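Backbone-to-sequence.
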């Protein structure tokens, strides 16, 4: 019924448009009464479509509730077990079918209720110019971002010291994949321009339409996460094509090969997610040499990152998530991004308790060491960002308020390998989150589907595909190596060590022990000046600190270490 009404409506709209064109060209006059009648008929058809969709959703919700009640009653009734088993299977199948219909009907209803202007036309974006320390310069600026036309993906292949663009490289798929439709899931990166369009839409629609969470509570834009966005944005926008979100956007010009892989939890507020990615874009804007390039330098508004919610087809997730995690879209996308991973860490550190996030970090930190591929494929980069308001001081007397902060193994490209710059940028990372990282245990991570947990733990343990469904081991050397790698990346940061130095001995020792088990390749710098962040460090702890430094660090700088005997 909805499709037939929409065809009638489209036919009338074409007729009205044709008459209007004829009128303007003076070849034929359209009577105002006829025009008004046509417009009213079009509007009436639109209202009928909306009414039918609402009725369809309500009827399906009632049918779903009825089936759930029947299943509940049958569970309570213990009399005819055999009959109950057969009927339960039948009712469960019927319930799944109704849920699928409800999902489509609700998505269609939401699709018809909005013009989706942020995706189809564009949106306004405010920004600042950025200086050499990654600090804002000048007054706030505003620009309209056109989303109506395909836009090629690119990154800055060469910049000056401030990160300003000197040369740009287009990001293209291999020639044999450029015409494949749809693009392979690993090519479905999304650009910062496209991600900000989602946030612009959330700001406009959320409160106006009365969006609610799963418990029926009204949402504010800053509370909307991917679970909510999937219901109100991703599924409705793709309901007609039932494809992935990226390929449905008019601004997508073709395959969008990701330069970074983003590991995250769906429960993270989208506003905070974008804050973190905006900060990462600034931190990695510089690209001065081959090392910067290999670490993802030259990050711009047109540089794609891989985000599972937008890359995977939410209507057919089974297609991209097979039993063997090594064959999943996640793994293939990680390969395209050359192991460059950005983890978005929520305020509770939930991301480290999710099995898919743990697997993504295994691919970044452990798997490259176990493979015999060429050197280029072995080098990964892990950065972890969290939304956290703080005052940044560039150690030259300049300060600014920031909304996110990142800890990056080896530093960001804008740090230029200077330890003092790395320390200044990272030292405000919340210590409570670092403490939680020291308790990471991949073997205890959880999943929405227990099968995923079993498959991933077996894959990390190196079990064959024949063993993928077996009960996974409770401990394994690869689990321990991943746990140690994750903890060490945090423990080696200035924020971690300086925070632990202010705590009791137990916390201090856990931190330096975690640091010692890592194999971090970076520069470390310690300035023990009397009025600095190490002000209260005792000689005993100073000795313990140096004794636990990972042997793989490439440069060590120690200043003002005037410690006497205790």
């Amino acid at each position: 019924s909805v499709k037939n009404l929409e065809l009638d409506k489209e036919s009338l709209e074409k007729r009205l448009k044709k008459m209007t064109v004829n009128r303007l060209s003076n070849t034929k006059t359209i009577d105002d009464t006829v025009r008004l009648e046509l417009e009213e008929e079009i509007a009436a058809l639109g209202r009928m479509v909306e009414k039918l969709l609402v009725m369809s959703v309500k009827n399906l919700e009632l049918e779903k509730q009825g089936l759930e009640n029947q299943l509940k009653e049958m569970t309570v009734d213990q009399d005819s077990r055999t009959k109950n088993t057969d009927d339960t299977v039948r009712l469960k199948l019927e319930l799944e079918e109704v849920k699928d219909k409800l999902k489509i009907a609700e998505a269609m209803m939401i699709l018809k209720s909005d013009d989706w202007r942020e995706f189809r036309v564009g949106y306004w974006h405010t920004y600042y110019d950025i200086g050499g320390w990654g600090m804002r310069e000048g007054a706030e600026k505003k620009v309209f971002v056109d989303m109506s036309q395909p836009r090629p993906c690119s990154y800055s292949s060469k910049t000056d010291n401030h990160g300003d663009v000197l040369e740009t490289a287009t990001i293209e798929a291999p020639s044999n994949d450029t015409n494949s439709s749809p693009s392979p899931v690993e090519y479905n990166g999304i650009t910062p321009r496209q991600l900000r369009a989602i946030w612009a839409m959330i700001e406009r629609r959320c409160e106006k339409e009365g969006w609610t969470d799963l418990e029926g509570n009204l949402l504010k834009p800053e509370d909307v996460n991917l679970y909510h966005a999937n219901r109100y944005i991703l599924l409705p926008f793709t309901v007609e094509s039932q494809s992935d979100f990226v390929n449905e956007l008019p601004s997508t010009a073709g395959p969008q090969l990701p330069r970074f892989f983003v590991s995250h939890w769906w429960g993270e507020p989208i506003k905070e997610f974008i804050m973190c990615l905006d900060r990462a874009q600034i931190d990695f804007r510089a690209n001065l040499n081959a090392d910067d390039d290999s670490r993802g330098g030259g990050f711009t508004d047109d540089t794609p990152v891989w985000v599972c919610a937008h890359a995977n087809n939410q209507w057919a997730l089974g297609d991209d998530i097979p039993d063997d995690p090594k064959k999943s879209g996640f793994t293939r996308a990680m390969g395209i991004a050359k192991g460059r991973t950005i983890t978005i860490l929520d305020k509770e550190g939930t991301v480290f308790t999710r099995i898919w996030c743990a697997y993504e970090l295994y691919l970044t930190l452990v798997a490259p060491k176990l493979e015999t591929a060429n050197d280029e494929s072995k080098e990964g980069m892990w950065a972890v960002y969290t939304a956290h308001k703080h005052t940044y001081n560039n150690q030259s007397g300049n300060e600014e308020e920031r909304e996110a902060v990142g800890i990056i193994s080896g530093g960001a490209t804008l740090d230029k390998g200077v330890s003092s710059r790395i320390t200044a940028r990272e030292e405000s990372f919340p210590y409570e989150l670092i403490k939680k990282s020291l308790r990471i245990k991949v073997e205890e991570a959880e999943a929405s589907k227990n099968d995923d947990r079993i498959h991933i733990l077996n894959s990390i343990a190196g079990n064959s595909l024949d063993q993928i469904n077996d009960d996974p081991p409770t401990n394994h050397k690869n689990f321990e190596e991943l746990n140690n790698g994750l903890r060490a990346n945090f423990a080696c940061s200035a924020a971690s060590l300086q925070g632990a130095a202010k705590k009791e001995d137990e916390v201090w020792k856990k931190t330096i022990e975690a640091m010692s088990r890592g194999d971090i390749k970076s520069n470390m710098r310690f300035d023990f000046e009397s009025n600095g962040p190490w002000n209260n460090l005792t000689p005993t702890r100073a000795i313990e600190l140096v004794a636990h430094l990972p042997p793989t660090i490439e440069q060590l700088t120690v200043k003002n270490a005037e410690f006497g005997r205790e």
